[in-house]
Design brief:
The structure is a single chain. The chain is an alpha+beta fold. About 20% of the residues lie in helices and about 40% in strands.
Length: about 170
């Protein structure tokens, strides 16, 4: 389930980049373009301030050392055709406490319907500001998520927006 995976990645970040201690290996990125194996999308990664890391079942996780921020992409199979985009979006935030939704709107990402959400929350006694895009495409859900401490969030938001603009499904 995709909500458990993202919760795990966020929890790791909240524990002072505990993911580094989990034995993460760097990912291969060719000319700034990330195209995960056996996935149907490409994305242009931001500049050198972001370090690609592998923490678990996500497609990619990026960390920004200076601003203590994370970006992650997770793609998962959808088990039921009856699940809605709104339901998938709300599942992403299960386990977060004291959620305050700042923005929740339908948008298009590469001409596909998506839910765009910005919220503040607490995870393991740490406060975060989170921005996400949840996209349903064919038989998969794509969770594109960025988070940081609320006072540092705006410093990295432009990078995340540029990543989202570059997100392209390869078989369209």
């Amino acid at each position: 389930m995709h909500h458990f995976q993202i919760k795990h990645v966020i929890r790791c970040w909240g524990l002072s980049f505990f993911i580094i201690m989990l034995g993460c290996a760097p990912l291969q990125v060719k000319e700034g373009i990330f195209s995960p194996p056996h996935k149907k999308y490409t994305v242009t990664l931001p500049g050198k301030d972001w370090e690609p890391i592998k923490t678990g079942k996500e497609d990619i996780a990026l960390r920004h050392k200076q601003y203590h921020a994370m970006i992650t992409f997770i793609s998962s199979d959808i088990e039921s055709k009856k699940v809605s985009l709104e339901m998938l979006n709300s599942q992403l935030f299960i386990g977060m406490k004291n959620k305050k939704i700042l923005l929740n709107e339908p948008v298009l990402v590469d001409n596909q319907k998506a839910m765009h959400t910005i919220l503040t929350c607490e995870i393991d006694n740490h406060t975060f500001k989170v921005e996400s895009y949840v996209i349903m495409f064919e038989n998969k859900v794509y969770d594109l998520v960025s988070w940081a401490a609320p006072d540092l969030f705006d410093y990295v938001r432009k990078d995340f927006k540029n990543i989202i603009k570059s997100f392209k499904f390869s078989n369209l």
